[in-house]
Amino acid sequence: MIGPAGRGGRYASVVLPVPVNRPYIYEVPDALAERVVPGARVELGRWLSDYYGAPLGLALRAILPGPLWSAARPAGPPPAAERLLVLTRNGMDSLLERERRFKRAPKRRAVYETVEALGGSAPVSHLVNQLRLSRNSLEGLVQQGLARIERVPEMRDPFAAMSSPPPPTLTEDQRNVVAGIESTPVAVPVLLHGVTGSGKTLVYLEILRGVVASDRGAILLVPEIALTPQTVARVRGVFGDHVAVLHSGLSDGERADAWRALRRGERLVAVGPRSAVFAPVQRLGAIVVDEEHEPSYKQGSVPRYHARDAAAVRAQLEGARLILGSATPSLETLDQAAQGRIRTFALPDRVGARPLPPVEIVDLRSAPRVEATATIPWSEALDSAVAGALERQEQVILLLNRRGFATFVQCPACGNVPGCPQCAIALTVHQTPPALRCHYCGHEQPVPETCALCGSATQRLRGLGTQQLEHFLGERFGRARIARMDLDTTTSKWAHHHILERMASGAVDILLGTQMIAKGLDFPNVTVVGVVDADTGLHFPDFRAGERTFQLVAQVAGRAGRGPRGGLVFVQTRAPDHHAIRAAAAHSVAQFAAAELPLRSPPNPPYPPRTGLVRFVVSGTDHAWTADLAERVAAWLRRASSARLDGMLTVLGPAPCPLMRLKGKWRWHVLTKAAEPRVLGRVVRAWRAKSHRAVMVDRDPVSLL
Ligand code: ADP
Ligand code: ZN
Ligand code: ZN
Q1: Ligand 1 pocket, 202 CB below 6 A?
Q2: By mean pLDDT, which of 21-35, 311-325, 349-363, 589-603 is the weakest?
Q3: Closest by alpha carbon to 127, among 146, 114, 116, 144?
Q4: What single string gives the DSSP state of each residue in 629-674?
């Protein structure tokens, strides 16, 4: 922000990126003068600060990318050569051979199976430094002839030179929707509610093309995980060099370059996840938020903004059109649409008149299971569908939203479950590499052979995780080529893309994984989709548990039957009558909303979208101190409500958070609700002025754990 020009030079009232609310006055050095633009996107920053109760400096920091805060452009490292460990697969296709070779070498086995899960090759530095696998075991594998080391140039950005043929012509439905959106007044936000496979991307691109043709700029927001080569190629196919792709793999220097090109107007279109909502696109004409229901649009640190809502504000400030798209819109957006604040356009059918795949709900309590595997929820129905698909050389996608090998280990004698010493949560059993791990803080300890409490010598694994499912599938479908995609197989830079490329090229028969595989993927040869356990998130103590389950199951179901061979979906559950499962099986958002909204409306305690919500989380190392501070926060809120807000604020708690201990800290929370957004705005701003380091304020939280 530049204040009035002083006599001796220019002065700027500068807001520092620190949690302080008072601006400092600085003289603007000549070298920086041209970089300081009066009022540049400061409105948006103010809104972030005022709406979310974040200090202005931190709000502005979110708007500028890190490297631009320092004057000099950091010199990127020269492209280096990298050492890759590549598996040779010498006779390792049979499980028996594998057992024989690794019988006395569990560490080598761990390395081998980790690299296998990573797609057959991985940088040595990643295996040793990040995954902490033993260097000796790596070398052992090489000596055994099971792997070799290759020197390759550092992995290239797979987006760098990506393009695809020009897009197909629009279908009549798509054309009608484009025409409808373009004739809607710019100030009216639009929801594109199109079923999975209805070709929403083509609609976005067509609208953005119109924007660019009139020499205006545009932003396309996608969830990080959907920023695949597939998506990027489609966008490049239309906009060529006019597009800046702001993916998370960019180095600081590359990111700064991309932002400069946008600011100078050399590129008019920005594609990226959450933070791309702040991209300095010139003459902004439209912002598209794809998969607007995605929780990953919410930022997890201050300012805790939701990119969809920030996009709405930015579009309004700059006179741009806002388009939200989803097959499973959030209840918040549906509510806005019902109130007439958003205009809805529907694409109720798939491209090419392909039907949505039929979904069979498999009741795990009674359905016949495959005999040999009573401990794994694997029904005969799903089993024969998978076998059939493999026989016909079609592909299969299996969702299990729980990584690791088993959910926890339990002593059958005394019931003891090893938990994380830092967090109030059971440790997850991992096998590649073997360890008990905490999924919240990363704590790791060896898998116990005997019970730490009673000494019992047998320990039982409970709850199926993706690693175990992969192992099971390997035994059951010995010839199938299986790829697993979850947080553990995608830690290295482009692993996610490599797995999807192998899937696209037909080198994978079964793709299994967590929620990562549920969205956006478009593989026409996938004819069977199985949800192995639909209930993993259904009973979380969070009012959105049902909505998340509905979205996850409906989205993954939408991956089946995108080609001429059609498709089938199997949803295994112990809650076959739950409205989230039923509605997902019917691919029906309306059915879900009709059942879910009453649960969030009076006489039940109201929850969004029926009320606004702000969560105060207090954390500290001392339990009594934490509980006491939470009590004082609640008391302050109650006083504020009765003294200044006409009692329009409902205060719940304090209560321990469902995750009561995390990374060594105790956690308590207080929830506040108000129907009037203005009331919550006053509360968060009043708190911003008080602010306390141990208290985190989260407006419109996407998780209550
Ligand atoms: P959604 O995002 O709505 O699930 P996509 O945008 O991924 O759907 O499109 C689904 C598939 O249909 C893609 O393979 C896409 O290339 C194809 N498609 C979309 N529009 C057309 C069209 N007009 N003609 C032919 N194919 C199309
Ligand atoms: Zn025991
Ligand atoms: Zn932990």
Answers
A1: yes
A2: 21-35
A3: 114
A4: HHHHHHHHHHHHHHHHSTT--EEEEEEEEEEEEETTEEEEEEEEEE
* DSSP for 596-636, written as a single string: HGGGGSTTSPP-TTSSEEEEEEEEESSHHHHHHHHHHHHHH
By percentage, how much of the chain surpasses pLDDT 70?
87
Please give the structure tokens belonging to residue 297.
């649009």
Cα separation, 655 vs 639, whole angstroms:
18
**pLDDT over 90 (residue 579):** yes
**Ligand 1 in reach of 174 Cβ (< 6 A):** yes
Rounded to an integer, what distance in angstroms lies between the CA atom of residue 319 and that of residue 28?
A: 31
pLDDT at 513 over 70: yes
Overall average pLDDT of the 6-30 stretch: 40
pLDDT at position 294? 94
In whole angstroms, what is the distance from residue 70 CA to residue 17 CA? 12
Query: Ligand 1: which atom is nearest the Cα of residue 290?
Result: 2
Which of the listed residues 169, 202, 230 should we mutate to test ligand 1's pocket, taking the one with most ligand atoms within 8 A of CB? 202
Query: What is the pTM for the complete model shown?
Result: 0.85
Judge whether 399 and 549 are in contact, CB under 8 Å.
no
Longest dimension (CA), the chain: 87
Separation between Cα atoms, residue 255 and residue 59, nearest integer Å: 19
172 CA to centre of ligand 1 in angstroms:
13
